[in-house]
């Protein structure tokens, strides 16, 4: 888990468009357009830190901000600010990958799988029953 800790910034030119990922997850069209515009116009920064016997996660992209603490293997509920819906989230380590499964109210299930290679982290998303709906690349700051 230590390799995931730190601050990461999106490498836009090495990342897939977010729109198909959001659509596959069943996010409403008006929210997809709004989130896509915000993500296009702003840097996307993710931070992961150790917090006692759990971890602290934060995401920032212009006006979109979210943060929460979690423990591996424990499901928690969180309000997803970009769509104003509750989600159940579970983080786990699977064969060295940091995986978070998200079930959002009124939308489908999404899975984000993260792998770190040196100073790069690749996040693969699957949603809507599709094995892979997109990849996002981040670089350690």
The rough form would be described as globular
Widest β-sheet, arrangement of strands: 4-3-2-1-10-9-8-7-6-5
CATH topology: Lipocalin
- Put simply, the count of helices is 2
CATH level-4 homologous superfamily: Calycin beta-barrel core domain
Helix content: 10-25%
* Biggest β-sheet description: 10 strands, antiparallel
Distance, first to last CA: 17 Å
Strand content: over 45%
Structural class: mainly beta
CATH architecture: Beta Barrel
Low-pLDDT stretches are none
- Count up the domains: 1
CATH class: Mainly Beta
Order of helices and strands: EHHEEEEEEEEE
The pLDDT mean sits at 88
InterPro entries: Calycin
GO molecular function: lipid binding
Characterize the structure shown:
This protein has a single domain, classed as Calycin beta-barrel core domain (Lipocalin, Beta Barrel), CATH 2.40.128. It has two helices and ten strands; from the N terminus they run βααβββββββββ. β2 and β3 form a beta hairpin. It has about 140 residues and is mainly beta. It has a ten-stranded antiparallel β-sheet. GO terms for molecular function: lipid binding.
